[in-house]
Amino acid sequence: MVDKVIKASKIIALLEGGCSQCFVAQRLNVSRSTVQRTWQRYQETGSVKRRPGSGRKTCTEPRDDRFLVSQALRNRKSSYVDLKNTLEEVRNVQISLWTVRRRLLAANIHSHSPARGPKLLRGHGVARLSFARNCVSWTHEDWDRVLFSDEARISLHGEDRRRRVLRRRGERFAEACFEEITPYGGGSVMFWAGINSMDRTELVFIENGTLTGHRYITEVLIPYAQPALTALGENSIFMDDNARAHRSGGVDAYMLEVGIRRLDWPAKSPDLNPIEHVWDVLERRVRSVQPAPQTIRELKNVITAEWEHIPQETIKDILISMPRRMLAVISARGGHTQY
């Protein structure tokens, strides 16, 4: 407001000094209409300040605005259309969607896609925090010894991620703004792979039923994981999550027998596994292929091709984040992180 008054005073000073309106507009970098309005106001009132109450009236009362905010915070998954309709039904006030958005922005409420992740119980948080504290001092060279692995699924038709939630700054992981996920919902093609900063394994499709402990040994560990670990050297470490097939008695016995050193991975921690971000890169590449695959066979061919075309530098850049992930878990006291 002070800046506007100062600029208006400069306009009047230049005009009274004999300058033309066009010259003043160019000199002060304002429109000519602004110069005209300022001069007219000065001629009528003798002041450069706007008359009290001369601005445009708002179309809502303060209590209407409070109602909108309370409705948005009560149901974080409300759309602007939902809030507009509710205000019209309850308070008989008709406004535009743009007005709804402005009122919420004034209350620091923004529309975002919900953060997503598994539900964390207290024990999960404790385990995650302990893991992060044990590994926070690891260097990039330490993480380079780890072969990160996991399974993933991609369906013929992508999951709908268009849902939105209304939240304020700092509420990304608030319970009302969070969306829990279940593993592998609605997938069509399941596959496994392992990554390291220097290389990656082939993509292994898991076909004909459920992945069991026996199949994990014969179809994944022996032909793909073990050779990759051998290439990393005698100090290599294998990372897999706590899926049932990975933690069967037979798998544990086999790893002990062949000397595979396993990272003690905390449950419910996909945000700590960098391969999850690589899966995201892969799926976006698959979804960008045109024409889109129409059959499972076509989908598998596209997935295989795109996996091979992901630059190794992209994978390396993702793996560099491991020290930051540990710090993020500690900062969140074992809770969800931005990863």
TrEMBL record:
<dbReference type="InterPro" id="IPR036388">
    <property type="entry name" value="WH-like_DNA-bd_sf"/>
</dbReference>
<dbReference type="InterPro" id="IPR052338">
    <property type="entry name" value="Transposase_5"/>
</dbReference>
<dbReference type="GO" id="GO:0006313">
    <property type="term" value="P:DNA transposition"/>
</dbReference>
<dbReference type="GO" id="GO:0015074">
    <property type="term" value="P:DNA integration"/>
</dbReference>
<dbReference type="InterPro" id="IPR002492">
    <property type="entry name" value="Transposase_Tc1-like"/>
</dbReference>
<dbReference type="Pfam" id="PF01498">
    <property type="entry name" value="HTH_Tnp_Tc3_2"/>
</dbReference>
<feature type="domain" description="Transposase Tc1-like">
    <location>
        <begin position="65"/>
        <end position="134"/>
    </location>
</feature>
<dbReference type="InterPro" id="IPR038717">
    <property type="entry name" value="Tc1-like_DDE_dom"/>
</dbReference>
<dbReference type="InterPro" id="IPR009057">
    <property type="entry name" value="Homeodomain-like_sf"/>
</dbReference>
<dbReference type="GO" id="GO:0003677">
    <property type="term" value="F:DNA binding"/>
</dbReference>
<dbReference type="Pfam" id="PF13358">
    <property type="entry name" value="DDE_3"/>
</dbReference>
<dbReference type="InterPro" id="IPR036397">
    <property type="entry name" value="RNaseH_sf"/>
</dbReference>
<protein>
    <recommendedName>
        <fullName>Transposase</fullName>
    </recommendedName>
</protein>
<feature type="domain" description="Tc1-like transposase DDE">
    <location>
        <begin position="145"/>
        <end position="296"/>
    </location>
</feature>
<dbReference type="Pfam" id="PF13551">
    <property type="entry name" value="HTH_29"/>
</dbReference>
<dbReference type="InterPro" id="IPR047655">
    <property type="entry name" value="Transpos_IS630-like"/>
</dbReference>
<dbReference type="GO" id="GO:0005634">
    <property type="term" value="C:nucleus"/>
</dbReference>
